[in-house]
Write a structure and sequence with these properties.
- This protein is of the alpha/beta class.
- The protein has a single domain, classed as HUPs (Rossmann fold, 3-Layer(aba) Sandwich), CATH 3.40.50.620.
- It has six helices and five strands; from the N terminus they run E-H-E-H-E-H-E-H-E-H-H.
- The N and C termini lie far apart (42 Å).
Length: 161
Amino acid sequence: MGLTALCPGTFDPVTNGHLDIIERAGRHFDTVVVAVLENPAKQPLFSVEERVSMLKEATSELGNVEVDPFSGLLVDYARLRGSSVIVKGLRAVTDFEYEIQMAQMNRSLSGVETLFMTTAPNWSFLSSSLVREVARYGGDVSGLVPAVVAERLAEKLGGPR
């Protein structure tokens, strides 16, 4: 059994920026578990089952990537999965301000370390909320998300297929 990293998130929906981080993390860890958060405080566009399904399809060619839903504390899920490392992508300084607090809390609670990866420059502007907004207004998001996600967004919201 090798080193397992968690890539947690809501992934509502998964974007090409998320996939970039997942792929790159996969080059450094034996297993990457994409941990899809079921957060009762958020009202996602897609159910957790839909988000897991889209992620599984989008990562199907990555042999060391697993996709799994979770709820509750990430550190509890990390313990359950036998992982002591969380990988998070950072787009900008504003991401860092929030993520550093989470990383320090997770380390304080359980000793789990967080490694930050900077987003590739071509995805630094991209967020799930921005993709949802563009799709809601009928914009073409096909270059921003995997094909399966563009299709599911079009089914839910209308717009280009």
